[in-house]
Amino acid sequence: MLAPLDPTPSLRMPTPADSRLPNPRSIAFIGGGNMARSLIGALIRGGARAGSIAVAEPNAELRDALARDFGVAVHDAARTAAQGADVLVLAVKPQVLKTVCTDLAKVAAASRPLVISIAAGIRIEQLRAWFDTDLPIVRAMPNTPALIGAGATGLIANDSTSAEQRAQAEAILGAAGRTVWIEREELMDTVTALSGSGPAYFFLLVEALEEAAVAQGLPREAARALATQTCLGAGRMLVEDGESPARLRERVTSPGGTTAAALDAFAAGDLRGLVAAAVDAATRRGRELSEQYS
Ligand SMILES: NC(=O)C1=CN([C@@H]2O[C@H](COP(=O)(O)OP(=O)(O)OC[C@H]3O[C@@H](n4cnc5c(N)ncnc54)[C@H](O)[C@@H]3O)[C@@H](O)[C@H]2O)C=CC1
Ligand SMILES: O=C(O)[C@@H]1CCC=N1
C-alpha cells in the first residue's frame, strides 16, 4: 500500500487530535462495503477509537473482516448498529437507501443523529422524506483513494446541521483526505462526475498508455511501471508544486518536441470535448439516479 502523501496545507493528513476535536461519541456505518471500509480505515489510522464505531453489514465475510482488521463492532441489522449513535454514515448503494432510511426512521427520530449520506445522486430532500423527520443531514461524495488517505470529498449540509455537526462531518470525511464544501446541491452531481467517478478516468488513461506502449513493443511490466509512476509523479506535482495544471504541462512541452506532437494528437481527437462529454454523461446519470429512487 502507498504511504500517505507528504503533508501540505492543501492535502494534510488529519492528526489524531483533529479527529478527536468534534468528538462524536459514536458513529454507525450502515453498509460495510468498499467505501465504508476505506473511511473506517482512515478514521482508525487517524486515531478514532474502534469502540466508537459500529457497522451494519449483511454480508458475513465483510463483517468479519471489518471486526478483525479494525476492531469495530459489527451487526447484521442496521437498526441495532444505529441504536444511540451520534452519527449515521449511510454507505449503501442508492438502490437500497430508501428501504434503509425508512427502516431507521424510528431510531433516528428518537436519537436525532447527524446523518451523512455518501450515496451517489440521492438528494437531501429525498433522505429527509424517507426518514420522515427533519434531521441534520450532510450529503458527501468521497472517492476510492480514501483507502490510502488521498481521497477527495465534496460536502453539503442542510439548514438543520449545526456548525459543530458540520465540523464532525468534515473530520470524518477529512480523515480520508481533502474535503470541499459545496453551496448548491445540484452541483453535487458535478462533484460526483468529477472526483467521485474521477479515479476511474485516470486508471483508464494509465490503461490506455500501457496498451499503447505494449503495442510498440515495450514489455507489459515495464509499460505498467512507467505509466503508473508517471501518474503518481504528475499527481504529486499537481498537489505539491503549487503551479497550475496548464503551467506544469507547458514545462514538459518543448517547442517542436515529442510532447507537443502528442498534445497535437489529443487536440485533433478533441480530448477536451470528450472529457466534457464524459463528465456531462456522469452528471446526467447522477440526476437520473435520484429521479429513479424518489
Ligand atoms: N465506489 C465508489 O467509488 C464510490 C461510491 N460511492 C457511494 O457509496 C455507496 C457505497 O458504495 P460502495 O461502498 O462502492 O458499495 P458496496 O457494494 O461495496 O457497499 C455497500 C454495502 O452495503 C451493504 N448493504 C446492502 N443492504 C444493506 C442494508 N440494508 N443494511 C446495511 N448494509 C447493507 C452491502 O452488503 C454492501 O457490502 C454508494 O451509494 C455509492 O454511490 C460514493 C463515492 C465513490
Ligand atoms: O459509479 C458510481 O455510481 C459511484 C459513484 C461515484 C463513484 N462510483
UniProtKB/TrEMBL annotation:
It is found in: Cytoplasm. Pathway: Amino-acid biosynthesis; L-proline biosynthesis; L-proline from L-glutamate 5-semialdehyde: step 1/1. Residues 1-22 are annotated as: Disordered. It comes from Dokdonella soli. The lineage of its organism: Bacteria, Pseudomonadati, Pseudomonadota, Gammaproteobacteria, Lysobacterales. It comes from the Bacteria. Coiled coil: none annotated. It catalyses: L-proline + NADP(+) = (S)-1-pyrroline-5-carboxylate + NADPH + 2 H(+); L-proline + NAD(+) = (S)-1-pyrroline-5-carboxylate + NADH + 2 H(+). Belongs to the pyrroline-5-carboxylate reductase family. This is Pyrroline-5-carboxylate reductase. It holds the Pfam family F420_oxidored. Residues 27-121 form the Pyrroline-5-carboxylate reductase catalytic N-terminal domain. Keywords: Amino-acid biosynthesis, Cytoplasm, NADP, Oxidoreductase, Proline biosynthesis. Catalyzes the reduction of 1-pyrroline-5-carboxylate (PCA) to L-proline. NCBIfam families: proC. Its EC number is 1.5.1.2. Residues 185-289 form the Pyrroline-5-carboxylate reductase dimerisation domain. PANTHER family: PYRROLINE-5-CARBOXYLATE REDUCTASE, PYRROLINE-5-CARBOXYLATE REDUCTASE 3.
